[in-house]
Write a structure and sequence with these properties.
mainly beta, about 50% strand, about 950 residues, four-stranded antiparallel sheet, elongated
Length: about 950
């Protein structure tokens, strides 16, 4: 059945999730070795993490979205090919670690946060409750580290990017207490390394980068002892590579970068010989790719990643039993920074996301399995396969380790659904203790699995505790562990039984066994010989001074395989010791430089400590105690808000009883500091102001550049900046604006340690005066003087010399001066001219503090109200020139003059008919015309006062003979 993008159904019955693949449009699943699209993710993710849950769903967390933003969202992939939203994490993160714990919960830790910095936070997803909960933090910030599930249920965290430097430390997470514990140091700091868990429980940590160079260093971590031992180095230094434990217990390391170029080389570590050997090369050099050991196939699928910073679509298979890489179908999209996971459904693997991608696809592969992991002599081995080419013949080869027979070859025919069954083999009596490697090879696919014919472990008992343990004091106690051989098929012969404590011990307690197996040496193991029915080992549990008192039930396991084991329960008792108290200093913000002396009952146990400083565990009597502090070097307690918490009461008191291991925290929150600065525009303004914070005046009568100075405030949170008018100052004369770290309304929220500055800027409002001038000054006109269309101040019905008075305007910038006619005044009788500081159209631009004056001058227009001539008519007797004088009347002083004369008859002879004698005298020809016709002269007169002009005309007649 194929995973395709059409609609899918998810059936939930009770608590059982029924998984069913929906057929593709063709009705048949895609061929093995090919990718096919499946449903799209809820959002694009790069640098996310994916974990296969126990119910078959895949949990995908965090990463960066298509815009590069780190997210806290999560989603679930259902194997029907659909994604659904999951509850978001508490913290946004990418390049983090995610591990499914043995109880089914998922630990998510570290990574880069929204600010791009590595984080210490960790949280757990509970699939049953469908909820997240925070747990204690990592011992240091980490991103791009490795996280490995140990056999005892703990998680090993190694290396990574730690707040700008490469970490060389390791720590473990205890799922019982939900706490992290420092566990030692690697041989070298490293990031972008690889980790793989060996069959004996150790964790191999290989390669990586120290921040500048690729590394070849290899370390081994042993969970039972907590030791880190340096191993043989890689043949090639590499970072960004993959590390995969293979079916035979060896570890494949492939690809990566040596710092100068991406690599196609690969090498394998053999834990028996303790050596590395080269294997075939990848077809494509790549780094930061994904590599998965395919379940019930056991080839390694390598896909995606980058080559020369370019994301890759190609994929290939490492076939360990053939010691070569084979190309397989390519991804539908190039993927870098994607996630992947084999699915609970046989023969399917999911790849999702990558840089800018929300798409997902699944890879189909052939599978091979046996109906059991272990068989007794004569028991039939049922071998089945799925995902093979219909109708083909699959070759099945059985190889024994150690070899007791030559390889045996069988065949099986694949049915129309791609499945086969073979039941032609059963181990023999002399096969006891043998591991069988079963290899299937078809025309397209190949797969390999193992099964055993091993003796079985029967039962295990844990004896009573020998030795007394007391909390607060390091010590050890022993328990006799007895392991009995089982009975029935496969129980005879020699075998090794690995010993382990499978449940969590109290904090600080570690377990070790007295026995080891040989060939090669395996710690915590029992060697059963053919005649041994019972073997014993001494379990030693060692505690530290920090191990708490109490009774703990623990489980010891003896096993030869995942299905052949026995368990027994022991009881660890740790008596209560004298109480211990630790005082821890916390500073807010964490970067604060304050130094403090931590005290218990008036005695100083830690001097000049900063954030994270501690007294260490102080052993005290079982009674009432008091925690306190004094100021350290260059520190003043009044600069801080101090709160005592943890196991202590707010007043620092605590009552301790035997066995108590308590922690009290003194948190010093740096009081915020705020400065208020006065700015005036213009800076030469003489205004005085009182600067206030929360209605308290901290600076009086300050001018431009004045300040409250640095004011230490007693509380965090909301505060308000304001001002009052100082001496001789009115706030209404200014435009006020609050800026810098304050909001416009003067509010500011201060956090611990904040050092903020707010500025109150007072801009002097501009002042404008409009004055009236009349020409002539005696003119009786009345006018209303206006600013921005409104009659201003005392500017109503003013005459010559009138004014608005000084008007303070509310805004800077553009303004307009104008006027309207006052009582009994017509503007049309005047020529108006605006001047002074204003433009001719009355506009003016005012800056802060401007004091300007504009003048509106009204010139009375000239009017000629009467024009008379003397004489007004002429009765000449003969030809001669007669003087005519004109007399105009005007409303205001003006200069008048004759500008032209016109006549109604042609000029006589060569003599002119008129001569103008300026300004108001003219000679007219006084020749009497014959007949009754009169001769008329039109005399045109113009008057001006130098600003305005008026014109009129007058007829003078020469009377004719009647």
């Amino acid at each position: 059945m194929g995973l395709t993008k059409p609609a899918r159904k998810l059936l939930v019955v009770g608590a059982v999730l029924c998984l069913e693949l929906v057929p593709r449009a063709t009705g048949a699943p895609p061929p093995s070795g090919e990718w096919s699209p499946t449903g799209s993710m809820v959002q694009a993710r790069q640098g996310a993490a994916a974990v296969l849950l126990a119910d078959g769903r895949v949990l995908i967390t965090g990463g960066a979205d298509s815009a590069g933003n780190t997210v806290r969202s999560a989603e679930l992939f259902y194997p029907v090919g659909a994604f659904a939203v999951a509850p978001p994490m508490n913290v946004a993160r990418r390049s983090h670690g995610a591990v499914r714990l043995k109880d089914g919960r998922v630990l998510v830790a570290g990574g880069y946060g929204i600010d791009g910095a590595a984080m210490r936070t960790a949280e757990i997803y509970d699939p049953t409750a469908n909820a997240w909960s925070m747990v204690s933090s990592l011992s240091e910030p980490r991103a791009r580290f490795t996280a490995s599930l140990l056999g005892d249920g703990r998680v090993l965290i190694a290396g990574g990017d730690s707040a700008g430097y490469v970490s060389g430390s390791i720590e473990t997470f205890n799922p019982t207490t939900n706490t992290f514990t420092f566990a030692g140091n690697l041989s070298a700091p490293r990031v972008d390394h690889a980790a793989a868990t060996l069959n004996d429980g150790r964790v191999l940590i290989a390669g990586g980068s120290d921040g500048g160079s690729a590394l070849s260093f290899v370390d081994f971590y042993t969970p039972s002892s907590g030791s880190v031992i340096q191993g043989p180095p890689l043949a090639t230094a590499r970072a960004g590579h993959s590390g995969t434990t293979l079916l035979d217990g060896t570890v494949l390391v492939a690809g990566g970068s040596n710092g100068a170029q991406d690599l196609s080389t690969a090498e394998v570590y053999d834990p028996i010989g303790g050596t590395w050997r080269p294997v075939g090369s990848l077809a494509t050099a790549r780094r930061n790719h994904l590599a998965f050991l395919l379940p019930r196939n056991n080839a390694v699928l390598v896909f995606g990643g980058t080559n020369g910073r370019a994301a890759l679509r190609s994929a290939e298979l490492d076939v360990p039993w053939e010691a070569r890489f084979l190309q397989t179908g390519s991804l539908s999209s190039a993927r870098s920074g994607s996630v992947g996971s084999p699915l609970a459904l046989d023969g399917w693997l999911l790849a999702a996301g990558g840089t800018g991608l929300d798409t997902a696809e699944v890879y189909r592969f052939a599978t091979l399995r046996t109906d059991r992991d272990d068989y007794g002599p004569g028991e039939t081995v049922t071998m089945t396969g799925s995902g093979w080419v219909p109708g083909e013949t699959v070759t099945l080869v059985l190889r024994e380790v150690p070899p007791t027979h030559a390889e045996q070859t069988l065949t099986a025919t694949v049915d129309a659904s791609g499945n086969f069954v073979n039941t032609q083999f059963a181990p023999e009596r002399h096969d006891e203790g043998v591991t069988f490697f079963l290899t299937a090879t078809g025309t397209v696919s190949r797969a390999q699995v193992t099964f055993t014919d091993s003796p079985k472990v029967g039962s295990l008992t844990v004896g009573a505790q020998t030795g007394s343990l007391t909390s607060g004091t390091a010590g050890s106690a022993t328990f006799l562990v007895t392991v009995n051989r089982g009975s029935g098929p496969g129980s005879s012969g020699a075998f090794k039984a690995n010993l382990s404590v499978t449940t969590a011990l109290p904090a600080g307690a570690t377990a070790s066994f007295s026995t080891s197996c040989t060939g090669p040496v395996t710690p915590d193991c029992l060697n059963f010989g053919p005649a041994d029915s019972t073997k014993t080992s001494t379990l030693t549990i060692t505690t530290t001074g920090a191990t708490p008192a109490g009774t703990t039930l623990f489980t010891v396991k003896a096993s030869t395989s995942a299905t052949d084991f026995a368990t027994g329960t022991g009881t660890l008792t740790i008596n209560a010791g004298p109480p211990q108290l630790t005082v821890i200093k916390t500073l807010l913000p964490g970067s604060d430089s304050g130094q403090f002396n931590l005290r218990i009952d008036g005695t100083t146990y830690a001097t000049n400590v900063g954030n994270g400083g501690t007294t260490g565990a102080v052993t005290l009597t079982a009674s009432l105690h008091t925690v306190s502090e004094t100021a350290g070097t260059l520190t003043t307690l009044t600069d801080y808000i101090s709160v005592i918490g943890g196991d202590c009461a707010a007043d620092g008191t605590i009552t301790l009883v035997a066995g108590d291991v308590k922690n009290c925290t003194i948190t010093n929150t740096r009081k915020p500091r705020l400065t208020v600065i006065k700015a005036l525009a213009p800076t030469s303004d003489l205004g005085k102001f009182n600067l206030r914070i929360d209605d308290t005046t901290y600076a009086t009568d300050v001018g431009n550049g004045g300040s409250t100075g640095v004011v230490t405030l007693p509380t965090l949170g909301a505060h308000t900046v304001s001002e009052l008018a100082g001496t001789g100052t009115s706030l209404s004369d200014y435009l006020s604006a609050i800026s810098d770290d304050c909001a416009a309304d003067g509010s500011i929220t201060l956090a611990a340690g904040d050092v903020k500055t707010c500025t109150i800027t007072n801009t002097r409002k501009p002042r404008l005066t409009v004055t009236k001038a009349l020409v002539p000054a005696t003119d009786p006109g009345k006018f209303n003087l206006q600013i921005d269309g409104t009659t201003a101040g005392t500017g109503s019905n003013v005459g010559n010399g009138g004014t608005t008075g000084v008007i303070t305007l509310a805004t800077l910038g553009a303004h307009t001066v104008g006027e309207t006619a006052g009582t009994a005044t017509l503007l049309n009788n005047y020529l108006s001219v605006i001047g002074g500081a204003c433009a001719a159209n009355g506009s003016i631009t005012l800056a802060a503090g401007d004091v300007k004056t504009c003048t509106i001058t009204n010139y009375r227009k000239v009017e000629i109200t009467g024009l008379s001539a003397s004489p007004s008519s002429i009765f000449p007797a003969d030809r001669r020139m007669v003087f005519v004088t004109l007399a105009p009347t005007t409303l205001n002083p003006a200069t008048c003059g004759i500008v032209s004369v016109a006549q109604n008859t042609p000029q006589l002879g060569s003599q002119p008919d008129f001569i103008i004698h300026l300004p108001l005298s003219v000679e007219l020809r006084a020749e009497r015309p014959t007949g009754a016709t009169n001769r008329s002269y039109l005399i045109n007169v113009s008057c001006t006062d130098g600003v305005t002009t008026a014109a009129t005309s007058l007829f003078v007649s020469v009377l004719g003979v009647r």
